[in-house]
Design goal:
Elements lengths: L3 E2 L2 H23 L4 E7 L3 H16 L3 E7 L5 H13 L5 E4 L9 H7 L11 H9 L7 H14 L6 E5 L6 H10 L3 E5 L6 H6 L3 E4 L17 E4 L3 E2 L11 E2 L4 H7 L2 E2 L7 H20 L9
Parallel strand pairs: 1-11, 2-3, 2-4, 5-6, 5-7, 7-8, 8-11
Antiparallel strand pairs: 9-10
Helix pairs in contact: 1-10, 2-10, 6-7, 6-10
Bound molecules: NADP nicotinamide-adenine-dinucleotide phosphate.
């Protein structure tokens, strides 16, 4: 293996410690804690784990956590009414609705109801539009965390060729916007892209957000490329094991032979997502309370 392994877990721990410091000074200035509300509808076990760990991390940073668990058969009206209450609640700076929602609910309408000033997931049309316009706003956590790792590793990204594989609203599209704002030359690849290995081979930066286990091979990479593996896929368990291994969208073993640096799975982008959620909540809290936050503080 020749690639440096990018330690997202360590970076996320440092970010969380910084958030905790600023959360304490925010509390002194504003006379209240910054607060994050997380809404979970139904009993999806994976979502329950995410919501629990978000709540725990919020409290550990010295912020207030409000968990709203609603029954699987919650109506659209009841969910929208809860969002309205959270929008109006001055103790709530960030609102996160855990996705996916049960099938009978209109996810887009629910996300659109969130006050953009509290949109810590960065998914409302206002947040998405501000990102495209290059205006300050709240940016989706996973791509922002990925960008932080890239800038920490490479410094300026200006002029670099970046390929983002995946064009989801949650990861691929905002990732491409963030890289464009850093003056990268950005290509967005997706399931209809012709000759993907050839496209990837041009890139100084590869961000894989596909949801296909170990799809990107070392032979696809330009030597020395920086690889950010967003994918989280659980393989089928081998005989005798209760759980399968977690792998990314990149074949780590072969990619690490060619790349200059690469994020592991787990321990790469994953831990960044919650750390950036806390960061976004604190940024929103400062704006909502009219408390100044030094530029680039977080
Ligand atoms: P998604 O909504 O399913 O989007 C996947 C994207 O990959 C789509 O744009 C799709 O193209 C593209 N794609 C699928 N097959 C492809 C192929 N063979 N070649 C090229 N492109 C292909 O997934 P997502 O929400 O963006 O998530 C992507 C991965 O990141 C998943 O593994 C997810 O678990 C992980 N994830 C991790 C975190 C974290 O905290 N680390 C957060 C979010 C997501 P089309 O648009 O053409 O269908």
């Amino acid at each position: 293996m020749s690639a440096a392994v990018i330690d997202g877990k360590a970076f996320a721990a440092t970010l969380r410690a910084t958030v905790a410091e600023y959360a304490a000074t925010f509390e002194q200035s504003a006379g209240r804690k910054a607060g994050l509300a997380v809404v979970l509808v139904g009993e999806d076990p994976a979502s329950e784990v995410y919501v629990r760990s978000k709540g725990k991390a919020t409290l550990e940073c010295g912020m207030a956590s409000f968990e709203h668990k609603l029954a699987e058969d919650t109506s659209q009206e009841a969910l929208l009414a809860l969002i309205d209450r959270l929008n109006a609640d001055p103790a709530v700076d960030g609102i996160l609705v855990q996705l996916p929602l049960p099938k009978h609910l209109d996810e887009q309408a629910v996300v659109e109801r969130i006050n953009p000033a509290k949109d810590v997931d960065g998914l409302t049309p206002v947040s998405t539009g501000r990102l495209a316009l290059g205006l300050p706003g709240l940016v989706p956590c996973t791509p922002l965390g990925s960008l932080m790792l890239l800038k920490d590793r490479l410094g300026s990204l200006s002029g670099l060729d970046a390929v983002v594989i995946g064009r989801s609203i949650l990861v691929g599209k905002p990732m491409a916007q963030l890289l464009l704002a850093e003056s990268c030359t950005v290509t967005i690849a997706h399931s209809r892209t012709k000759d993907l290995p050839d496209v990837v081979r041009r890139a100084d930066i590869v961000v894989a957000a596909v949801g296909r286990p170990e799809m990107v091979k070392g032979s696809w990479l330009k030597p020395g490329a920086t690889v950010i593996d967003v994918g989280i896929n659980r393989l089928a368990p081998v005989e005798g094991a209760s759980k399968g291994r977690l792998v990314g969208d990149v074949d780590f073993a072969s990619a690490a032979e060619v790349a200059g640096a690469i994020t592991p799975v787990p321990g790469g982008v994953g831990p960044m997502t919650i750390a950036v959620l806390l960061r976004n909540t604190l940024v929103a809290a400062h704006r909502n309370a009219g408390v100044a936050l030094a530029k680039d503080a977080l």
